[in-house]
Amino acid sequence: MRLLFAEDDVLLGRATCVALLKVGHAVDWVTSGHQLLAALEREIYDCLLLDLGLPGLSGEDCLRAIRSGQRRLPVIVLTARGQKDDRIAVLDLGADDYMVKPYDLEEMAARVRAVVRRNRESQSPELAHGPLVLRPLTRVVLWRGQPVTLTGKEFMLLEALMRATDRSVTREHLEAALYGWGEEIGSNAVEVHVHHLRRKLSRRLIVTIRGVGYRLGAPDQLDGGTPVHDEAGARDAG
Ligand code: CA
Q1: Domains along the chain?
Q2: Ligand 1 centre from 126 Cα, in Å?
Q3: Is there a contact between 139 and 155 (Cβ–Cβ < 8 Å)?
Q4: pLDDT at residue 44 above 60?
Q5: Any residues with CB less than 8 A from the CB of 174 and at least 6 apart, and which?
């Protein structure tokens, strides 16, 4: 998952980022409300972790701005104020959940999973493309009904391609979906994941659009035969 994390306390911010990266999330960390809103203009996130006490534009202001917008974004508020009235105020502003500081990092990871799951449950429980099925909630991938084991990045890449339906996805978009700011990205990182996905699933599954990026192969081209070993088919597909 790609998370946006807003926290102006450097020590707390760093520790939280490390913990979230360790459980496999891509994390972008911002330290002010203005940076936060700018990041939301540029990128699409699965969840926002929002410190209320941000300098300049406060967490409350940011939450109001986000909730007045179109996109549905799960938000977990992080606050030092744990009184009942404060908690109610935060939920009334449209937060999905809140955590009182000092928070436990393992619990935070679990709450992120929970709010993202609830958000996705309200959307599509299953993405399908020909013989390929991907279940975002349970992180299950089926190929012709058989479960396939993917790494976290492979799963994220496949999900991004499936959510894009018929549109092509640029390499830059995929890099952004897979990696947080400042995370080391090899120049051919996306190509490597695409290569592994083709090997694990089908050579025809992901079509390279030269100079642009990738798209999924036509679903009817994926059924039947044994495309994994079909070199001619792979060349046809690009
Ligand atoms: Ca703060």
Answers
A1: 2-121 (3.40.50.2300), 127-221 (1.10.10.10)
A2: 38
A3: yes
A4: yes
A5: 157, 160, 161, 190, 213, 214
